Helix-turn-helix domain-containing protein (Actinokineospora alba), 299 residues
Amino acid sequence: MGARNRAGARELGDLLRGYREAAGLTLRQLSPKLGYSTACLHRLETGYRGTTTETEVVHYMAACGAHYKDVRKLIDACRATNDDRGYWLCPHGQWMGDSLRSLIFHESSASKSVSYEPELIPGLLQTEAYARALFARADISEEHRAARVQARMERQRILFRNNPAKFIFFIQERALRLEVGTYRIMTEQLLAMLFLADQWNISIRIVPASARDRASLGGPFQLFGFHKYRTLAYLDGPVGGLFLEDLDYVGAYRSLNRQLAGLALDAGESRVLLAKLADEYDRAEGSWDDASQVAQEQL
């Protein structure tokens, strides 16, 4: 696996390890089946080995008793890993698509995560009610919608695991003012963010509307920092997620990160704004209830 695509190599290795463990095989048991030493297999599964060929992937998967469709999937992953483009695209799916699986893998192995969201509350911070309201607009079945919400809620466990990573969220003020669902949903969403912002490993910083055109910095992105590996950037789009590992590509997003840090309110000021907006939504909900009651009485 090329040194220039180590994030893809780690992900491919993790997928291979998953199939081996599902087959109930240890590295020692798999070693004679493939004719490789356990040390070589360990390097393959951790992304430290040299380029792995498609034939080697097929032999590995066959030794694990994998189905043909799974073999095809890992062959595609192997091709992407061996292609030294410095980026790769993972398509979305109705359930947990390749992009979400890849995002969760790299997110869970990072020591630091920096996110930027211009329009919506970041997925890791969303309440279940907010996520349900957000997915309600999607042209999918209720079963698929429920699966997406569940996956989003389960993904949030990473915030509270043992020895968690440091998470920094830059969010445009307009994302907080965009009404998703009801006023009550928005009130509870912002109150939940106040709770999260009080955690030692979570920093929420709001880019105020007063920044105006200076805060026009493009679409959402995430930067993942690692102790042993290069920084990885992730861009989420309507058809898939784009991972960037090339130094020049990632450098551009590091520059955006520095601009955001200069524009955003600090953590304390951001909490004040969150509390203010939560109160506004709470008051608006009460006004709406009063107006609705008057309308019903007039009927």
